[in-house]
Design brief:
mainly alpha, Helix Hairpins, 2 domains
Length: 286
């Protein structure tokens, strides 16, 4: 009796250990209705594995389409952002040129007013009766002429600034045109790839939804989580050369037998991917 209890205790420990690395599912009875109308919980383990592996194949093809597009979507967006930045700088140059031109106009008006003032002071000089008044007017005329020189210098400086801004403006305009041409070419290249792959991608996404309907929510959530964390997007992988084809870790013979029997969903102890037998891979390819 003690020996029997010991054996039962050992079997219990073994079952607990296996539960940590496998996802168990009860095999459902056969139903005549189509898979689409069947509750995913009613599917057998083998049917779930086939649905999972089929979904993996479909998602891998969608990944290939994304790889085909490469960095083009990012490059297009970067170019758009760069053009927006360049156009903002161009608008600032344009605004600065207008402000400088306005300042020049104001300075010219001030110069005209000061010249009229000089003329009036000179007329007053002709009417003075003593040297003191003449010298006072001469000093005032001299100060006004200094103010005129300052305005003229400001006008020259402003004109120089305008010339520099116009050079920058023209260079920036040419750069924007160049970037717009780059953007046009990149968008055309991306559009061509999208057109060539759009139909295939839409069909694959429809197929992926159909396959997802054959997988229960918990298992599908685990599949998506594994796929998200996997560097190559592989959540379900076949055995290759007695190893997990996801991380290439060796799989013990007994575990390989369990996988081939398709009675429970088994995950790799090293990488956590769901493992299927190589025959399933051949069945899918066929």
């Amino acid at each position: 009796m003690a020996t029997k209890k010991k054996i039962e205790k050992t079997d219990d420990k073994k079952e607990v250990k296996e539960a940590k690395t496998t996802i168990k599912a009860e095999k459902a009875p056969k139903v005549e209705s189509s898979p689409a109308s069947q509750d995913p919980q009613e599917f057998s383990v083998e049917e779930r594995l086939k649905a999972l592996y089929g979904l993996q194949k479909v998602m891998s093809k969608i990944d290939e389409i994304k790889i085909l597009r490469g960095d083009l979507p990012l490059e297009v967006q970067d170019l758009k952002d760069e053009i927006i930045g360049l156009q903002t700088r161009l608008e600032r140059y344009s605004s600065e040129i207008k402000e400088l031109e306005k300042s020049i106009a104001t300075s010219k008006n001030s110069i005209e007013e000061l010249k009229l003032k000089v003329d009036r002071k000179k007329e007053q000089q002709q009417q003075v009766v003593n040297n003191r008044e003449y010298e006072i007017l001469s000093k005032e005329i001299e100060n006004i002429e200094l103010d005129i020189q300052i305005y003229e210098k400001n006008i020259n400086d402003a004109n120089n600034d305008i010339n520099h801004r116009k050079v920058d403006y023209n260079e920036l305009t040419a750069k924007i045109e160049e970037r717009n041409e780059d953007l046009r070419l990149k968008e055309a290249e991306l559009d061509q790839i999208v057109v060539e792959t759009k139909k295939e991608e839409e069909e694959l996404r429809i197929l992926s939804k159909e396959l997802e309907s054959n997988i229960d929510v918990r298992l599908l959530s685990a599949f998506k989580r594994i796929r998200k964390n996997a560097r190559n997007g592989l959540a379900v992988v076949p055995i290759e050369r007695n190893a997990c084809s996801g991380c290439f870790s060796k799989i013990p013979p007994q575990r390989q037998l369990d996988i081939r029997q398709r009675r429970k969903i088994i995950v790799c102890e090293n990488c956590g991917r769901i493992i299927v037998d190589h025959e399933m891979d051949n069945e899918h390819e066929g």
